[in-house]
Amino acid sequence: MARPLVVTGAGGRIGRLLRLHWTQPAIWLTRAEWGMLTSPWPDLPKGAVILDLAGVTRGDFSLNPRLADAVGRLALAVGARVIHLSSASVYSGGPGEMCEAMPAAPFSAYGASKRDAEAVLRSHVPGATVLRLGNVAGADAVLGPRDPSAPILLDPVNDGTRGPVRSYIGPQVLAGALAKLCDKLAQDQTLPLVMNLCQPGPVAMADLMDAGGLDWSFGPPRSGVVARVSLCTEVQSAHLALPPASAAGLVADLRAARGWP
User: Fold this and answer.
1) Over the stretch 141-180, which tens digit does the pLDDT of each residue have?
2) What is the pTM of this model?
3) Tens of pLDDT, residues 75-90
4) How far apart (Å, rounded) are the C-alpha atoms in residues 159 and 204?
5) Nearest of 59, 9, 2 to residue 35 by alpha carbon
6) How many whole angstroms separate alpha carbon 206 and alpha carbon 153?
7) What is the CA radius of gyration of the chain?
């Protein structure tokens, strides 16, 4: 790679996934290497590519914009190009596809924090590439680690019988996609300012559970459940050729990603 690669938030699930599957060298910054909110940033090579994975998915969501601020300041100091991992949760969801040109309209506190993180990072690095990531098979509530003694309940929705529908990506497909995007940036190629990242075509959560051989049932109705979040992949298709999503394919990808999550 023409530019050195730095991965922030490397101790999280996605960072651990990349360590398992990447072969290219990288500077991995976990909390041990950089306490992002309490310590000065480490000495890094000038002009690096930063893949920013830092963030929280539970607990204090106000940390997300603060972490993005720290990464943005680091990038500004070392003249880095940045890929920032955001989330499909910045969109409102609905019957149509969620496209990058749509205004962010988060349906959750987590989504609002990721929207704010995007803005904070952009204030430091206007040219940063923001990736709005779909659900990652194995890092989600459907196929992720769970208490084996707890019943598996799926939220019923009023537009079908297969539960909520989401855009997904398999873990190994994700690792390859991020490697390719980082390499493009390291070679000084142009990437979009905002890009959805998922395998084309949404998947029903009930289909994923069936493909995974899970014993599940519908739980009681809950208010505020978003029935469908389907990401448009038109922008993505100009930069990545990813296989269409299917329940069986996502489960196979997850099972082959040994040692993760």
Assistant:
1) 899 988 888 999 999 987 667 999 999 999 999 999 999 9
2) 0.96
3) 999 999 999 999 999 9
4) 12
5) 9
6) 10
7) 18
The pLDDT assigned to 1 comes to 52
User: Are the beta carbons of 198 and 233 closer than 8 angstroms?
Assistant: yes
Q: Please give the full DSSP string across 190-237, using - where no structure is assigned.
A: ---SEEEES-SS-EEHHHHHHHTT--EEE----TT---EEEE--HHHH
Q: What's the rounded Cα separation, in Å, for the pair 146 and 166?
A: 20
Backbone φ and ψ of 14, nearest 5°: -70, -40
Asked if 137 and 166 count as a contact pair (C-beta separation under 8 A), the reply is no
Which residue type does 133 have? L
Q: What is the pLDDT of residues 8-62, one digit of tens each?
A: 999 999 999 999 999 989 999 999 999 999 999 999 999 999 999 999 999 999 9
- Predicted confidence at residue 55, as pLDDT, reads 97
Task: Please name the residue ranges forming H helices in 41-108.
Answer: 63-78
Residue 86: what are its φ and ψ, rounded to 5°? -105, -150
Q: How far apart are CA 122 and CA 75, in angstroms?
A: 11
Distance CA 35, CA 42 (A): 10
d(CA 186, CA 51): 11
The helices-and-strands tally (H runs, E runs) of the chain is 7, 14
> How many whole angstroms separate alpha carbon 88 and alpha carbon 98?
8
Q: Whole-angstrom Cα distance, residue 197 to residue 131?
A: 6
Q: What is the pLDDT of residues 176-216, one digit of tens each?
A: 999 999 999 999 999 999 999 999 999 999 999 999 999 99
CA distance linking residue 98 with residue 163, whole number of Å? 19
DSSP assignment of 128-155, as one string?
PEEEEE-EETTSSTTTS---TTS-EEE-
